[in-house]
DNA sequence: TTGTAAGCGTTATCAT
DNA sequence: ATGATAACGCTTACAA
C-alpha cells in the first residue's frame, strides 16, 4: 500500500542528524544535548513518528505478545478467562494472540508450532480434549519456553499451572445433593483424558463414598468433545434416562455440559428438579434465571486468567526461575439456591 | 532465555553453504540443484528450523496479524463474532490480536494506536460506546489502512462495514408484541451514540407508528454503558416500572440488556410475561431455557465475524480497491416462542 | 555531544 | 548453481 510510515531515518534526514542521534534522543539518552532532544522530539511529533514494533522485536528478540490456546472462545468460561488475561496483558504492555483448537489435537499442535516459533514470548494453554500426547509441549517446555497451563493441565509435564480445586467443587456439589436426600446421583463429564474431568469425578466419587453410596453402573457419562457437538450431550442424557435404575439427580461437570443438560431435559419436557435435580459447574447466567434457579459451582474464571497471565509475565521477564514451578489452585465458589433441589 | 533458535545461518554453517543458497533452497527456487535442496531440507528438518516470522515481517512489511477491538470479550455476541473471525483467520494464515476497550474511548484510542503502528496488517473494530470523535480512526482510514467496522459502525467515515439489519430486527420484534395485543411497549437500549442503538430504536418507533401508537414519555431507556455495569440495567428497569403508566411489554436491544432485564425482573419477583412481557436481542441460551422461553432476535454473530474477516483479507491482500466500500448487511433471525407472550 | 557500523533473520539483486 | 551484499527499522558498542 501507499502508506509509507515515518521512520527514524526520516527524522534524521529532516534534521540533518544521524539515525543513532535520533534514536538516542527519542530514548532520552543522557549523552544527547537537550537542544537536540527538543528538536528531535518536535520533529517526531510533527511527522507523527511511531516506532516500528517489528523492528524492535527483531532487535530485542522478543515480541511483547503472548499466545493463548483454548478449545473455544465462544464459551462462557473461556471468554471470562480471556478477559482476565487481556486485562493483565494490557496493563503490562503485552498483546494477546488468540487461537482455538476446537478440541483438535492436530490443530493445537499447528497453533503451537506457529506461535512458539518466535511470534510470542510465552504461552497460555488449556489443552484440547484430544491431547494425550504431550511431545509438542514438552519440546517447547524443555527449551525453557515460558508456558503456563490453565484449567486443563497435565501430569506429564512439570509445569507452571493455574487451576481450580476441581475435587472440592465436585465434592461439595455432590454432598449438597446427598444432604438433600438424593441417592441416585449420576454425573456427566468431559473426556476421561482431561485433568478437570478426572479431578471432578474423583470429588464426586469421594462424596458418594463418604455417604456409603456405591456408584451405579452407567451413572458416569463422558462427553468426549465436552458438548462442542450438542448431540453428544443429548445422547448422554438419553442414556442416563433409559437406565434400568433412573437417576434422581445429575451433576454436570462443565459450563457447557450444564447448559446442554438443562436444554436437553427441557426439550424432553422433564421438570428440574421435579423429575431430576441438577447441580453443576456453570459460569453463565442461566443458573440464576431458570425457574427454579440452579445451584452451581462457579469457577473463578477472571481470576484464573489474571493469575495465569501474571505468572507468565514473571517467567518471561525472568523474575522467577523457569524451573521453580508454581501450581496455583483457586477455590471455586459453590452457590446454593435453596429451591433448586426441592423434591 | 537460553533457547537459541535455529536460523538459516546455522544451516548454512552446518552445510558450508551461503545463507542465500539456503534461503533459496528452502523456498524451492529453480536455481538450486536438487542435490543441494535435499541436503538443506534434511538439515533444516534435523535442526528443527523454523523461519522467524518477525524477520519476515520486517522484510515484507506485513505481519500476517490482524487486530480486533471490541468492548468486551466475555459477551455472548462478541465472543461468537470473534469465533468467526478466528476461524477465517486460521484458514488464511493470519493471527488474531484481541483487545478490549471496556467501552472506554481513551482505551480504544490507545489500543488502536498501538495496533496500527505496524503490528497488524488490518483492523476489525466495533466502536466503544464512548466514541463519538472519530479522528483516530479517520487518520488511519485516510492513510489507506485496511479497516472493517462491524456491528457498531459510524456514518462519520465512508468505510467497509458488516452489520445486521437492526431496523428490521427491532421492527419485527416490536410488531410481534403489537400483534399479540401489547400496546404499552417500552424499550431498553444502549447509548444513543451507537449506530446499533439508533437503528433499533428507529425500527421500534416505525412499528409503533404503523400501529398508530405514540411512543410514551419515558418509555425509551438508554443504558450508556450497555449494561457493562449491571446496576445501570437495574436502574433503567426500575425507572420503567415506576412510570405513571406502567409498560406491559419490554423490548431489550442487546444480548447483555436482555439477560440483565430478565435478571432484574426475576429478582424483583415479577413474572415474565405475566407482569411484563419481554422480547429482545439475544445470542445466549437463556432465551430458550427460562420458563416460559423468550422470543428473541438472534444476530448472526458467527457469520458477521466471518464476513468481516473475509472482507478485511480482501483489503489487505489488495484484491479489492480500498475505496470500493462494501457495506454488508446480514439478516437477523427472529425466533418466536409462542408461549412467551401469553397475557 | 554526535557519528559510524554491526547486528537481529530474512530475501532480493547482482555478481561470479 | 552459488555467493556476497544491501536492505527492512532499530539499538548500541565503538569511534571521533
Run of helices and strands of chain A: HHHHEHEHEHEEHEHEHEHEHEHEE
Please tell me the overall pLDDT of chain A.
94
First and last CA, distance of chain A:
68 Å
Number of domains of chain A: 3
Largest sheet of chain A: 6 strands, parallel
What is the 3D form of chain A? elongated
What structural category do the secondary elements of chain A indicate? Answer: alpha/beta
The CATH superfamily of the largest domain in chain A is known as Response regulator
Write the CATH architecture name of the largest domain in chain A.
Answer: 3-Layer(aba) Sandwich
- The CATH class of the largest domain in chain A turns out to be Alpha Beta
How many DSSP H or I helices of chain A? 13
Counting DSSP E segments of at least 2 residues, the number of strands of chain A comes to 12
The oligomeric state is: homodimer
Q: Give the percentage of residues in beta strands of chain A.
A: 15-25%
List the strand order in the largest sheet of chain A: 2-1-3-4-5-11
Q: Which spans of chain A of ≥5 residues are poorly predicted at pLDDT below 50? A: none
Radius of gyration of chain A: 26 Å
Q: How much helical structure, as a percent, in the residues of chain A?
A: 40-55%
State the largest interface.
Answer: A-B, 54 and 56 residues
- CATH fold-level label of the largest domain in chain A: Rossmann fold
